[in-house]
Amino acid sequence: MHAIATQIAPVQSLGIQKLDTDVMKLHCFQSLTGVKFVVTATQGTTDLDVLLQNIYELYADYVLKNPFYEMEMPIRCDLFNRHLDKLITRMQQVQDKKKRGN
Q1: Global model pTM greater than 0.85
Q2: Residue ranges of the domains in the chain?
């Protein structure tokens, strides 16, 4: 999707970075090394750019520093998965508080 957007855009484009519809949001973060992280969320969810940045930091800390990880391979790192789960849970709790008005 990212590559298609850069090819069909009428002007110089970095590809799709954000896509908002009536029901959902899609945000993409591309690192300087070309690794892309994509997150989808319901409409009204905020701070997706911060979430993507935090996911990239987890990736750098737990995946790239793993001596057994090879680039272009699926991510199979328990520490990354555990911290990612905690990050998503914290994000959901913050969003729930915002919806309740706290």
Answers
A1: no
A2: 2-100
